[in-house]
Design goal:
The complex is a heterodimer of chains A (226) and B (597). Chain A is α+β, with helices and mostly antiparallel strands and 226 residues long. Chain A has six helices and nine strands, in the order ααββββββαβααββα. Chain A folds into two domains: 38 residues; 154 residues, no CATH class. In chain B, the strands form three sheets. Chain B has a two-stranded antiparallel ribbon. The chains are: A alpha+beta (226), B mainly alpha (597).
Chain lengths: 226, 597
């Protein structure tokens, strides 16, 4: 008994040092040297300013301003409206505003819940409204009907930080973005293809379009770059 | 459903088997004390550790001594973990390990968390990035990720030694087994896995959280941390406690299509290898193949059901008018609470893998799974973690079932049941029976208590829109039932709506825990972890001393397909009989109805 207690106390201290300090610091140290970009979250800088991480999705909406010029807030989160120039990310259920990367959260909507149905219906409606040009009242993508809306555009992601959308979702939004930015649809579709990740080993997972990279590439073109 | 989806499932099973087979041989050599390829590297550190711990590895332990060492060491681990978690903002903690100055979570949440990580459960009432400092994640949680995995494995090894014992009472030496598990098995695998993960995009740093000025002029704060090291052992040790709240759905824990597949392999690698190890150590590899076959059949069955159900979509989606079929550029299905890069197949497979084992990591929201898709993790948990199961726990649990199946088979043919040449008698059957029934007992008792008390209902998040229904819906019952079933099985996955921690701000200021849920869950985990361990070790002790009689013509074989069928039958029968009434009230009702509430 006494022997076990002594060994246990020494053991837990020794293992805490080895496994809780040496091991994580060694892995972190090696990673910082060998894979420093990855280890620090694949940060993307534009003109020296940090604009995001390749792996973390963003809310591509602009803040709604109050009459006094300040950003409007509800429940501590900035209220945003969709910026039609940008591809929009998937719905996100994080608290404190969508795409809150300091507190990832599931929506936890149940499969038979009225709330889930309402959220879905609302997202379908918003997606269809976004497809309508407010000036001309014409649809950007003339072929879009409710049954053609991809599920990922309506269902919220697991992490609330999904950096990707499905190719189908991107192709639909391409009509709007091309029109607003006065680019050819073919050019936007080519960019989509460029920023689409493929299945690993040819079978694992699904293709996804990285929304942040795609939007940054569009901004570079609009700014007169290539 | 897509061809790529089915291919993922099939190739996963093939690759897993190809990797687990050689690892099983390696582990058999390690635990038999033979020279292995890593002996030249680890022999010196191994001796050094024995000296430091004042252990004589040659001292043989009977089951009681083995259990005593195990319990006392677990207790020491629990105490230190509790202290670490409660002092994460103490003045002696260096700033770099708590860059955001987080306070500690309240005592009740800490009680639950410490119990959770000690028992390999990794149930989390807290959310990692808003609760835990790097100090707690590394020195507290990561350490228990290793040790609880190690303890599970050594119990399985001790039981196998008991089964193959040729007289005498020795089961080996707990300390030697633990040190060898950590050095020869977990260290090389964790280091390789962690570096592979970083090379694919999992983060590993000690930075403070990033502040980003987004493309459209918003501010985004991005949580950081030493994730890769914890991620590797979290999966390998079937722990499953996420660094971040959304666990393996978070892009920093599971960034790509490849890492998803890789992490799934990590989870099942050791549980599968242990089965092959068992075959090797008994001297009849077919014994291992039979168990592996039974596990694989049940596993693939569960995956198929989950995949088909999730690809079909949910009643809520259909009611909203959403089309859930495959279209060009989107694979459809129930994408609520799922990530684009994993898709339906990658989410369904991951979910089954982490609920048949005690892993409990999630890459999608189980609460948002369809009724039938969500019934699959329920069924997996109801089978008490014997379909591969947790590291070690899976093997020792299914061996208890094998004992039961041999007994039932023996009764059916009217002979004294024998297993690997040893007569099975009343004592072993009583112990095995208790070991098997303890987990359902804990799960159902706690569920009943929590469902029937107002204190327990406080934790339910899924409140129906109609006031009369309130928390009296199938989903609300599912949340509660899943919480205590998951904790009893030391799984740790959740219908995440079930809450025990109210946290208004990141960093735990003003936060409070729901004492009822935290304490009940904590005791649920401890009881359902250590009672079966004690029964398994007692069975090992009872078997170790038995003499072996050579197999005769009338001996029932335990290495052929007939026995595989019998074993599956016994597992399903026990699981179904104990849990079916409760399952009916929750997920099955939901799966059978398109009704929204």
């Amino acid at each position: 008994m006494r022997r076990d207690i002594v060994t246990s106390i020494i053991g837990i201290i020794v293992f805490t040092i080895l496994l809780g300090l040496v091991y994580p610091l060694a892995i972190t140290g090696i990673s910082q040297v060998a894979f420093s970009g990855n280890a620090n979250g694949q940060q993307i800088h534009v003109r020296g300013k940090l604009v995001g991480s390749k792996l973390i999705g963003q809310n591509f909406g602009t803040p709604v301003l109050e009459k006094n010029g300040k950003a409007k807030e509800e429940k501590g989160a900035v209220v945003t409206e969709v910026d039609p120039r940008y591809f929009q990310s998937r719905p996100s259920a994080t608290e404190g505003g969508s795409y809150n990367a300091a507190a990832s959260t599931f929506s936890n909507h149940g499969p038979n819940s009225v709330k889930t149905e309402e959220a879905n219906a609302e997202n379908i409606k918003a997606y269809q409204e976004l497809n309508v040009n407010p000036a001309t009242k014409r649809e950007y993508d003339p072929g879009l009907t409710a049954s053609k809306i991809p599920v990922d555009a309506v269902n919220s992601s697991a992490s609330g930080l999904d950096p990707e959308i499905s190719p189908a979702n991107a192709w639909i939004q391409a009509y709007r973005v091309a029109s607003v930015r006065r680019l050819s649809l073919a050019r936007v579709d080519a960019l989509i293809a460029k920023y689409t990740s493929s299945r690993a080993l040819g079978f694992s997972g699904e293709e996804g379009v990285n929304v942040l990279e795609l939007n940054l590439a569009l901004d570079r073109i609009s700014a007169g770059g290539v | 459903m897509t061809a790529a989806g089915w291919l993922t499932i099939i190739l996963f099973a093939v690759i897993l088997t190809a990797l687990a087979f050689p690892l099983g041989s390696y582990m058999a050599a390690v635990y038999s004390g033979r020279h292995v390829i890593l002996t030249p590297i680890f022999a010196v550190p191994e001796r050094l550790l024995y000296k430091l711990l004042r252990v004589d590895p040659k001292r043989e332990q009977d089951w009681k001594a083995y259990a005593k060492s195990l319990i006392i060491f677990s207790l020491a681990g629990w105490l230190l973990l509790y202290v670490i978690l409660r002092t994460q903002n103490a003045p002696w903690v260096p700033h770099v390990l708590n860059p955001l100055g987080y306070h500690s979570a309240p005592w009740n949440v800490t009680f639950n968390t410490a119990s959770s990580f000690m028992t390999n459960t990794n149930w989390q009432f807290y959310s990692g990035e808003t609760t835990m400092s790097y100090f707690s994640q590394m020195l507290g949680l990561t350490v228990q990720n290793w040790l609880s995995a190690g303890i599970g494995i050594v119990v399985a090894v001790a039981l196998v030694r008991g089964i193959i014992g040729r007289g005498g009472t020795s089961l080996g030496n707990f300390w030697q087994d633990l040190v060898r598990t950590i050095l020869y098995l977990l260290t090389p695998l964790s280091v390789i896995a962690a570096l592979v993960l970083v090379s694919q995009g999992v983060i590993a740093n000690l930075s403070t959280y990033l502040t980003v000025h987004t493309v459209t002029g918003l501010t985004q704060t991005i949580a950081m941390g030493p994730v890769a090291s914890q991620e590797a052992i979290k999966m390998l040790g079937t722990n499953g406690g996420g660094f971040f709240n959304t666990n393996s759905a978070h892009p920093f824990e599971n960034p790509t299509q490849f890492t998803n597949f890789f992490e799934m392999l990590l989870v099942l690698l050791i549980p599968a290898a242990l089965v092959f190890m068992y075959g090797r150590m008994t001297g009849n590899r077919r014994q291992g193949y039979a168990i592996y076959g039974a596990m694989m059949v049940m596993f693939l069955g569960a995956v198929c059901v989950a995949y088909v159900a999730e690809a079909h979509g949910s009643p809520a989606q259909h009611a909203a008018g959403l089309h859930t079929g495959v279209i060009h550029g989107s694979t459809g299905g129930n994408m609520e609470g799922k990530e684009q890069r994993f898709g339906i197949a990658g989410s369904a497979l991951f979910d089954v893998i982490t609920t048949v084992t005690s892993c409990g990591a999630v890459n999608s929201a189980i609460e948002s799974f369809t009724g039938i898709g969500g019934a699959v993790p329920f069924a997996n948990l109801s089978a008490s973690e014997v379909i591969f199961g947790g590291v070690g726990t899976g093997l020792y649990s299914i061996l208890l079932y094998v004992l039961l199946a041999v007994f039932i088979g023996g009764l059916m043919v009217g002979r004294t049941p024998e297993w690997l040449g040893k007569k099975i008698e009343a004592r072993e059957i009583k112990l095995a029976g208790l070991g098997i029934l303890i987990t359902p007992l804990a799960a159902l008792f706690c569920t009943a208590l929590a469902s029937a008390s107002s204190a327990g209902r406080k934790s339910i998040s899924e409140v129906a829109t109609s006031a009369t229904l309130g928390t009296h819906t199938p989903q609300a019952f599912s949340e509660t039932f899943y919480a205590y079933l998951s904790q009893a099985n030391n799984n740790g996955s959740a219908f995440a709506g079930y809450t025990g921690f109210i946290q208004p701000n990141a960093g735990n200021l003003g936060a409070h825990g729901i004492t009822f849920a935290n304490l009940l869950g904590g005791f649920d985990m401890i009881f359902a972890r250590y009672a079966p361990i004690l029964f398994a070790l007692a069975v090992a002790g009872a078997l170790a001393g038995k003499r072996v009689t050579p197999a005769g013509l009338g001996t029932m074989r335990t290495d052929n397909p007939t026995f595989v069928v019998l074993l599956i039958g016994v597992i399903i029968l026990v699981g179904a009989l104990t849990f079916f009434p409760a399952l009916l009230l929750g997920p099955i009702v939901q799966g059978l109805t398109g009704h929204l509430y």
